[in-house]
Amino acid sequence: MTEPVTFLDTARRVIRQEADALRLLTDSLGAEFTEAVEVILAAKGRTIVTGMGKSGHIARKITATLASTGTPAHFVHPAEASHGDLGMIGDGDVCLVLSNSGETPELADVIAYTRRFKIPMIGVASNPESSLIRACDVALILPKAPEACGHGIVPTTSTTMTLALGDAIAIALMKHRAFTADNFRVLHPGGKLGARLTKVRALMHTDMPLVTAETPMREALSVISEKGFGVVGVVDADGQLIGIITDGDLRRHIDGLLDKTAGDIMTKGPMTIAADALAEKAVARMDERAITCLFVRETADDGRPCGILKIQDCLRAGVV
């Protein structure tokens, strides 16, 4: 009597089967992939991605990935395209058409439209003899791999390969365009990603609490109270930050405090952060030292402070 197949057994089989298919896809990539990327790079307009059913869901995700990594893209539903949305595809665009079989009826009008108006079309399908592949300018053929359902009817392995292929195209384009974290932040101002990519410069305060080493502590305490940061920076005659006075410094020197100068009390060589560093990095530094403020410098080589950052500002912005 054979042991019953468990849910965990099924899950592992599905994932192994899809992983095997991705290895086949990796090995199958060739000159056609490079040609597809070059066609998209050459397009003056947008990349129009389309597909029906499960391929349509994958097409939407590929569209979003392209758009968020520097390649203007738009999803067009093939059924809606036949009822007026073909007008969303224009001169200068390039079409990326997804269909595992390559014979999806709803794609016929999109294919005909691209052929009529000479719009470059990249086809993705598993059948090299299909109508889509015969009609397209660049063919990306998915390798033969069984669907993970075991009956060959549920799009699983095929959609995983198509999604990975779309990611590969998007990242190849992104690398070619030298798309940076700064570019990514511009397109992702909201949510967790936007917060993680926020620069220190965007959160720092430029009205800084600063005194010189010769400043009497009575005046230094007044600056601490007035600015409200709980600290004061100490600068030399050239404006270079040479020290900082915190609550801890005040407690350590409480005896005769008002008879001393800022230079007598300060902690030398305070930790700082560059203005163009990620706020996430600043939070990590503050956590490491168990402090709540960092003075900010314009560049790594410039010791003059240009701002001050509080950990509360980072937390309010969603940086953790």
Outline of the structure:
The chain is an alpha/beta fold and 320 residues long. It is 44% helix and 16% strand.
Quote the average pLDDT. Answer: 91
Q: What's the N-to-C terminus distance? A: 55 Å
Number of domains: 2
CATH superfamily of the largest domain: Glucose-6-phosphate isomerase like protein, domain 1
- Low-confidence stretches at least 5 residues in length (pLDDT < 50)? none
Major sheet, described briefly? 5 strands, parallel
CATH class of the largest domain: Alpha Beta
Structural classification: alpha/beta
Q: How is the CATH topology of the largest domain named?
A: Rossmann fold
User: What portion of residues is helical?
Assistant: 40-55%
Number of strands: 12
Order of H and E elements: HHEHEHEHEHEHHHHEHEEHHEEHEEH
Q: What proportion of the residues form beta strands (DSSP E)?
A: 15-25%
Reading side by side through the largest sheet, how are the strands ordered? Answer: 2-1-3-4-5
Q: Any idea what the CATH architecture of the largest domain is?
A: 3-Layer(aba) Sandwich
Q: Which radius of gyration do the C-alpha atoms yield?
A: 30 Å
* Helical segment count: 15
State the shape.
Answer: elongated
How does this model look, in words?
The structure is a single chain. The chain has 320 residues and is an alpha/beta fold. The chain folds into two domains: 7-179, Glucose-6-phosphate isomerase like protein, domain 1 (Rossmann fold, 3-Layer(aba) Sandwich); 200-316, CBS-domain (Roll). Helices cover 44% and strands 16% of the residues. It has 15 helices and twelve strands. The strands form three sheets. The protein has a five-stranded parallel β-sheet with strand order 2-1-3-4-5, with helices on both faces. It has a four-stranded mixed β-sheet with strand order 6-7-8-9. A three-stranded mixed β-sheet has the order 10-11-12. Helix 3 (54-68) links the parallel strand 1 and strand 2 (73-75). Helix 1 packs across helix 7 and helix 3 (54-68) packs parallel to helix 7 (157-176). It is elongated, with a radius of gyration of 30 Å. The protein starts with 6 loop residues before the first helix and ends with a helix. The mean pLDDT is 91.
